[in-house]
Amino acid sequence: MGGSELEDPRVKMDEKLLRFMDLLELLEKKRTTLNSLIEQGWFSITKARYSMGNKQVSALQYSSEMEPLVCVHTRALENGEVQFFTERNKKKSSTESSDELLSVEDIGPQEEGLRRRNKTKKETTEKKDTEGAKTDKGFEVNSARKRDQNPQQDPLKWFGILVPQPLKQAQSSFKQVIEFSAEIAALQSAVVSTRQELKLSLAKGLNSEDTLGNTVKEKCPTDELTVSEQKECSKITSS
Amino acid sequence: MAGRGKLIAVIGDEDTCTGFLLGGIGELNKNRKPNFLVVEKDTSVTEIEETFKSFLARNDIGIILINQFIAEMIRHAIDAHVQSIPAVLEIPSKEHPYDASKDSILRRAKGMFSAEDFR
C-alpha cells in the first residue's frame, strides 16, 4: 500500500521527464528547419540584390506606411504553457476593391425631385443633415479609396513592379519562417513550464522522502530508481 | 482566440529585417512606433536595449525575433525576461550561426541536469 503511494508520484515524474526530453528533441528539429529556411531566404535576397543592384534591395526601399499582413494569436493553457497561432490576412484584389467603390459612389444629381423655393426650417435643417451626410460619405469614399490604394500592400511592391524571382523566393521562405517561429515559441513555452513542473515535483519528492526516511531506503533498491531519484536517495543517505 | 492578433517584432541586421518585412510582419504608421529595428554597425547597445524593453512593454507584441549576436549584447535584459508573452526567439545571422549553448531558453533547460546524474 505504501509502495503504490510512492509509485504514483514517481511514475508522474518519469512521464514529465520523458515529455521534457521529447519537447527538447522536437524543439531542436524545428530549430534546424527554421535556421535552414532563414539561410535560404538570405541567399535569395543576396541573389536579388546582385541582379537589381545594392541599393535596390535595402532598408531604403521600405515603405513609410506599413500594415501587418500576419499576426499571432496566443492562448494560455491551465498548466502555464502558451500556444501561438499565426493568422495571415487575406488581401482583397485591387479589382474587387475598385468595383466596390464604384457601387458606393452616387452618380448624378444629389437632390431628387423639383427644388422647392418655399421651404420650412425643418426641411432645411433635414436637408443640410442629408447633404452633410452625403458629403461625409463622399469624404469616406475618397479616404477609403486612398486607404485601399495602399492598405495592406504586398511588400514585394516596395522593390518595384517587376521584381526578380529570387526576391519572391525570399518572401516565400520568410513566410514559412514566420509559421515556424510560432511553433517554436509554443515549444519553448512548453519546455520552460515542464521544467518548472519537474523542479516542483523533485522538491516535493525530497520533502516526502525526508519524512518517510529509512522506509524508502529499505524498499527501493537504487538499481530500480531513475537518475533523478538516485540523486535524491544519495542526498538522503549523505544527510 | 478572439480579438485582434498580436504583432511579431524583429531586432536584426538589414537582411533579416528585410526578409521578415517581406513576410508581412511590418507595422509603421504616423501614430505608432515601428515593430522592427534594423541594427547597423553604428547602432548603440543602449538603443538596442531600449527598443527591446519597449517591445516588452507593448501589449500588442506576441513574439520578438532577435539575431543571436545582438541578443548577446543585451543578454542581461533577455535573461531577465521570464514571462511567456512576448516570446523571445533567437535566430542566427549571416555572420554568426546559431549556437544552442547561448540560447537563454535552452540554458534554463540545461540547468536541469548535471554531470553527476549520468555517473
Report on the architecture of this protein.
- The complex is a heterodimer of chains A (239) and B (119).
- With 239 residues, chain A is mostly helical.
- Chain A has a domain of 133 residues.
- Chain A has a two-stranded antiparallel sheet with strand order 1-2.
- The radius of gyration of chain A is 33 Å and the shape is flat.
- Chain A starts with a helix and ends with a helix.
- Chain B has a 4-stranded parallel beta sheet, with helices on both faces.
- Chain B has 119 residues and is α/β, with parallel strands linked by helices.
- The longest helix of chain B has 13 residues.
- Chain B contains 5 helices and 4 strands; from the N terminus they run βαβαβααβα.
- Chain A: One of its GO terms (molecular function) is unfolded protein binding.
- Chain A: It is found in: Cytoplasmic vesicle, COPI-coated vesicle; Endoplasmic reticulum-Golgi intermediate compartment; Endosome; Lysosome.
- Chain A: Accessory component of the multisubunit proton-transporting vacuolar (V)-ATPase protein pump.
